[in-house]
Amino acid sequence: MKDIQYTTQLPSGGHWSLRMRRGTAMRLTDLNGGANVGMLFYNPENLLERYNAPDTLKCQHTFKLTAGHCLYSDMGRIFASIVEDSLGWHETVCGNLQPEHVAERWGKRDYQNHRNAWHQNGHDAFLTELGKYGLSTADMASNLNLFSKVTCGPHGEMELIADHSQPGSHVELRFEMDTLVVLHNCAHPMNRAAEYPQAEVKIELGLAEPVTDDDLCKNHCPENQRGFQNNALYYLGA
Description:
By secondary structure, the protein is of the alpha+beta class. It contains five helices and 13 strands.
């Protein structure tokens, strides 16, 4: 990223949404360790186009996401590319924590009575942001969970790897399309820590380095090259 123009911090349980333009970048840093940033993408010019987790994984022949991978829409276009990553593993299969799960694991708390010490969940955090754009539960796709690692055992059992993200871990996204980004900093659905997780995430926004012929993400696989071609066709207006 070059020319950082805006910096903010997302507290534990916080949520946010913003429009990122093509050619901009977002850098996320886990300040305390143990963060989980849920993220969804939509085309702001056509909100029916949204992030597609299955296509993102199958076209790049992977179960995990890291630098070199692209994040696809359900129209075969690329919302963003992962251009930098200190962790090597982010997951996009486990979805969100529901309010009843939070109440069961850590006790029910609400903002009216507990203020900033309340226990937010990813599902409601997304709904709060989606409602600002006329979207609802029906528009909630399977989301990306940055900073979280989930593995599968020999019998298909899934496990969240504790302490995967250490303080200072970071990931940077370069946006290949104008993108409505919806995100939260809520506990991962498989997190069973004794206490409700507390992790703050720094967000830096700026201009992305230009895409070159030898770009890691563009050349990761033939499918990504076609994805970039689909983006080029879209912006030509054809």
